Amino acid sequence: MADQKFVELLQTLLQPNTEHVKAATEQLNTQYYTDPAAVTALVQITMSNQAEDLRQLAAVEARKLVPNLWENLPDQQKTQIRQQLLQSTTEDEKPLSRHSKARVLAAMANQDLPVGKWTELPAILERAAVSSDVKHREVAVYIIYTLLEAMSPSNLGDPSRFLNIFVKTIQDQESPDVALNTMLALGELARTLEDEKHLKTFQTTIPHMARVLQRAIEDKDDVRATQACDTIDTLVELDSALLGPHLKDLMQFFIQVAVNTDLDNDIRTQAIGFLMSCVRFRRYKVQTFKLGEPMVKMCLQIALELPDDSEEEDDDDFLPGPAALALIDTMAESLPPSHVVVPLLKAAGPFVQNSDPRYRRAGISAVGMCVEGAPDFINTQLSEIMPLVLHLLADSSTLVRSATLDCLARLADDLAEDVGKEHAKLIPALIKNFDHAVQAAQSNSSDAMALRIIKASCIAIDALVDGFEPDVAALYVDQLTPRFETLFGHPDHRVQLAAISATGSLAAAAEDKFKPYFQKSVQSLGQFVTRKDSNDDLDLRAMSIDALGKIACAVGGEAFQPFVKPLMQSTAESLQLDHQRLKETAYIFWSAMARVYQEEFSPFLPGVVESLLACINQDETGEEIGVQSADLSGQQVTVGGKKFTLTQDNEDELVDADDALVKALLDAASADDWDDIGAVTGVAMEKEIAVEVLGDVLANTKNLFVPYFPKTVTAVMPMLEHSFEGIRKSAVGTLWRSYASVWGIAEGQGMQKWRPGLPLAVTPPEDLQKLGQRIMPLTLALWADEADRSTVTDINRNLSATLKLCGPAILSPTLTPGAATPLEQMCAILVKLLEKQHPCQIDEDVDDIEETSENSEYDWLTIDTTLDVVTALSTALGDQFGELWQIFEKPILRLASSQETSERCAAVGTIGECVEGMKAGCTPYTARMMKILLKRLSDEDAETKSNAAFSTGLLCLHSTNAKEVLGSYNEILSKLEPLLHKRQNPSEHEARGLDNAIGCISRMVKKSPQNIPLQEVLPRLIALLPLTEDYRENEPTFDMIVSLYQQQNPVIQGLAGQIKPVLEKVLQPPEGQLTGETREKVKELGRYLGG
């Protein structure tokens, strides 16, 4: 079949002519590639043709045809082809060609071995792998590697047969290729090893793998070093037993590699990547190894090599400096603050005081990278950090000021309200940086650093104003808005984007105070919303639409009305312009319009829903081009905006590749295929936003959305199983917002308010029941198995909110006989989470790891929201929750006795919330609850003491165990006494502690006034009113006062003069001081005292 015409068509595929390639491909597919003889012909060309590029292409084509055509060849012919190709591969002197043939052999074996053919191959390879002929060893080990890569190892028999060989070949001193290919093969085999004996054997190869990598580094063989790094990195994500006792040694080795400036940047960056994988996938072991501080110091040292950030370049992500900062970010997210943030702040001190600006930049950059992962801890350090930020904003070095602006933006992103308190100092400093940079850019338009500072100043202000109250933002509207508007026409579109975004955020913060600039801003931004001639135009269009949505929310629907229809038309057109960010901002703009206009959004609702559902239902597969990582060895490719370094067998040549790749490399027709790879991720991100926006639209349009609920729920439910966690989170949120919206509609149509307990006292309408029966089982299934912490946290939040809003309806028993009820499933999952045994909390086998009392903030957030679900259950079930408390008591009391402050504080508060929910149902547990609460009333942490006071009061009020409660009164009063003092400038927790102590005593008095020395207590209590922080405690406080007046208690009657001014104050703003019922009681008491 290898006639001249067939050969000519193959040669055409190698030509850089799009039309010729397409025609030849079509002819090959229709006239030749349906015939099994094509495999024979291609193998012959691979073995004998004189043209190397044609042999290479023939091997690629043969490998692709084998899965479909090989079985149709006669057995005798297949035997002949195997023997000839195996011999040709063994004799081939060129590694590239040899490896191409090996992959064809692997494809054949993948078809033969599972059906009991070519059974002699494994034994042949075993013998050759330990041959004295180095070439035989190289070929055999590489074929084994390609077999393991191409097929299930189970088809190759007992893993021991190859493991025992690899233990020897990984130590090959004669051939680096044998050792490296063994390492690659071990990486493939590792994916399927489960037997303890096999895992132990595998562990013995780890030190040799490290030596293979070390040898490649010493030989300055970057290609082999890259492959070795990739293999070891992959092992981190697999069974922890694979690395066994060697993980710490490996980490220390990679730390040394990362800091070695004599090595190639790519290897150093890969070493940092390995450490990042360890932190992400083995965070408990990393914590046990106490390597957080050494890695922090390593990252600071490497951060000295940050490139001059006059402008970001794509290549920067592959340099050690930026990679080190990314590692700090990952560590802050995955490890406790004491392992990362504490040593970093300590080590950064000398850096930011160093006379060398590179050190100051490295120090402040590292601080900024900690914020997202540990915002709560960073918040406790703001008193130290903010003066440093203000100082470095005035630094003499533009590099340092630029880095400080980035740090400030990160601080404001996560701590906007607290950082915003420094607005009077920060805004002038930011304006000064902005103005100086604008002047510098005007003097020298090519001053890239000036442009960088202009942009960074806008971004910092953008983040900062998010934390401003409208009256604070109003102070700066006149100063900032004109400055931003001057940049709308700037020649650098990145500066334009930053200024437009900052304008939108400033408007959102200032609300109606932005109205003086409303018309001009809309007109200025309006010029961008129809542009579509270039990617820069589309970027500007997207950012302008986003800003206009924020402006609409700021000024209100009436003022914005004239612009709604043209902008809705613009966003509809945006969906057809093939620009991901533009599509996303269109959806977000629709969300803003739904919030502003609510039921008046109805004219746009059909088109909006249709477009959002079309987005959710779109295919994500893209075009399959069959690129294999091994085919791009050693190459750097940019896919979807990210650069990837792949492995390579020969640094001067490419390994075999699929035809589409070959053509792409030869400037032929497949350039568009590369774009499709990135589109998969882009589509997923687009869907995430579309699902979330659907939730916004349905929540705001209420009754008008009713016709669309069935389609919406049907479209969103499959997203709970999507591979991208962002979509799963959005789907959970939108489905439960759907349920809450339908619930609200039912209540509006006359459904009674829910009442606690099961069976349901108030039965929801049938459509609501069916909706719950669809959503709840899928949510429970996802919740039970979800490995992503943030997704579990979101599920916790949604279930907690739903239980509080809609009561126990979602807990009603399942209709499936013998199956666990939703309540039983929930309790099982909650206990796992509280005991830190949920899949999202287990990264590895941790039997050999010492239990630690510390969590990262993300770990703690998962537990904290789990406690919220428990309290919501108590609210939904009422006194019935008393039966469930025995399930949760042990893990919650353990948390309440934890050495970690956050755990004690939250658990103590949870006890009180649950007592409030189950009321008298807490009685059987009174003694144990009282014991821990009394202990926590003397806690060293002010917030924990405050929560203990809150919970103690509720326990005293609701428990019917009079002996235990009343017997503890004196001790409670004694422990509360230190809290009953008004301080000059109390912290938030101190003020809350005072309020909660007053609330506690008020509940104790209400429960049993005869057991309280009222003559001593009441005057002091009244003197401390009104409450200033926790207005919730006004209810028990005034309830107690009113109750004593109703009883005509002489002590309270004698305090009328002190009580009157208190009543006047709490009836004044802020309105949130009193609930409606309590407000009426206070008014009535005021009238009584005034009469």
TrEMBL record:
GO terms for biological process: protein import into nucleus. Signal peptide: none annotated. GO terms for molecular function: small GTPase binding. The keyword Repeat applies. It holds the Pfam family HEAT_EZ. One of its GO terms (cellular component) is cytoplasm. Its main location: cytoplasm. Keywords: Cytoplasm, Nucleus, Protein transport, Repeat, Transport. InterPro entries: ARM-like, ARM-type_fold, HEAT_type_2, IMB1_TNPO1-like_TPR, Importin-beta_N, Importin_beta, TPR_IPO4/5. It is found in: Cytoplasm; Nucleus. The keyword Transport applies. HEAT repeats lie at residues 385-423. Residues 24-91 form the Importin N-terminal domain. PANTHER family: IMPORTIN BETA. This is ARM repeat-containing protein.
